[in-house]
Design goal:
The protein is an alpha+beta fold. It has one domain: Alpha-D-Glucose-1,6-Bisphosphate, Chain A, domain 4 (2-Layer Sandwich), CATH 3.30.530. The protein is built from 3 helices and 8 strands. It has an 8-stranded antiparallel beta sheet. Strand 5 and strand 6 form a beta hairpin. Pfam families: AHSA1.
Length: 165
């Protein structure tokens, strides 16, 4: 696993937008699958000691993923994602909102735009997150920055293990 991979995280409060660029030491197919298949997302998409659990996922335009991040004591924090655009292996977009266990979303959410590219077996993922509410963005930002960095590290380790098999 390479240690000099790019990780860039920038916040533009005026635009209510977060820009993340992250490189992975793996091919595009493997990284794309890690972001678009529930069984793989559940292996990395929660900061330890939490874990992710997808209740259902339909990765199609108009489809949804409903999942929870679960703490060690069993507390669940649900989120609902709706896929708004998919261009296989290069881009997908979704609308994300926290929700209750009955899939009722909170009023303010965020629009996520993922772009993927590969060069020399390094896959670069660009993520743009537009938040509907500046207050929501500021409320969750510090925890999000730390938690998201931890989840991406989880993915690094999963990809490294996948390459060894």
């Amino acid at each position: 696993m390479k240690n000099d991979l790019l990780f860039d995280f920038n916040v533009d409060k005026a635009a209510k937008t977060v820009y993340i660029t992250r490189e992975f030491d793996a091919g595009l197919d493997l990284v794309w699958d890690a972001f678009t298949k529930a069984e793989i997302l559940d292996q990395w998409a929660a900061p330890a000691p939490m874990r992710a659990k997808t209740k259902y996922m339909d990765f199609t335009v108009g489809g949804k993923r409903f999942y929870a991040m679960i703490s060690p004591d069993g507390e669940e924090r649900w989120a609902l994602q709706k896929y708004t655009s998919i261009t296989p292996k290069t881009n997908f977009k979704l609308y994300n909102a926290f929700a209750d266990k009955d899939e009722n979303p909170e009023p303010a959410g965020s629009e996520w735009d993922y772009n993927f590219s590969e060069e020399n077996d390094i896959t670069k993922v660009y993520i743009t997150i537009y938040n509907e509410s500046l207050e929501r963005m500021e409320r969750i930002m510090e925890g999000f920055r730390i938690g998201f960095a931890m989840t991406l590290k989880n993915l690094d380790e999963l990809l490294a293990a996948s390459k060894q098999n």
